[in-house]
Design brief:
This protein is 74% helix and 3% strand. The protein contains five helices and two strands. The longest helix is centred in the C-terminal third of the chain and has 39 residues. The relative contact order is 0.15.
């Protein structure tokens, strides 16, 4: 006769109901939502300038300025992200839900800061500086991918939570 179809088991949710409520009511969630695409835009434009310099050996000043702007966005999103993490999870960094994202974020900050110090103190020639920027950008891409995957997981979990609030679907088809 009819079979009851149950929702498949799922892993632990990214947020507890209390954390989800804090996330949804926090102004820092909006700030992160605005800063993240702006940082990505700064990254994309800067990457064009950096690659142009590496390929054509022209536009060094534009490439430097673009990396500094991108780094400014990074520092801003990292500080506001730590405040967001404190508001939602009760700690500024390394909350269990975002531990690995925060670990890779530290690498991203280290590489961007190394670039800035290399530029300020002229520790490398311009090509070396730009290759350091490329390394920082590669780490940023990994980190951004981590966060996008986490955002997708949170959306999937939220959708599952909404659907599990409804009664299980009963297939009433008889054979």
């Amino acid at each position: 006769m009819g079979e009851t179809i149950k929702t498949p088991p799922r892993g632990p949710d990214l947020y507890t109901p209390e954390q989800r409520a804090r996330r949804d009511s926090s102004v820092w969630t909006v700030v992160q939502g605005v800063l993240a695409p702006l940082q990505f835009l700064a990254f994309a434009l800067s990457l064009v300038f950096v690659i142009n310099f590496l390929v054509n050996a022209t536009g060094y000043d534009a490439a430097v300025l673009s990396v500094l702007v991108k780094t400014g966005f990074l520092y801003t999103i990292m500080v506001t992200g730590a405040i967001w993490e404190k508001a939602v999870f009760g700690r500024y960094l390394f909350a269990p839900a975002f531990f690995w994202e925060d670990v890779v974020s530290m690498l991203v900050i280290f590489l961007h800061t190394a670039y800035v110090l290399s530029w300020i103190f002229d520790l490398q020639d311009p090509r070396g500086q730009m290759w350091l920027a490329v390394a920082a950008y590669a780490a940023y891409v990994v980190n951004a991918t981590q966060f996008l995957l986490k955002l997708r997981a949170a959306r999937v979990a939220s959708t599952r939570a909404e659907s599990s609030a409804a009664p299980d679907y009963v297939a009433g088809l008889s054979r």
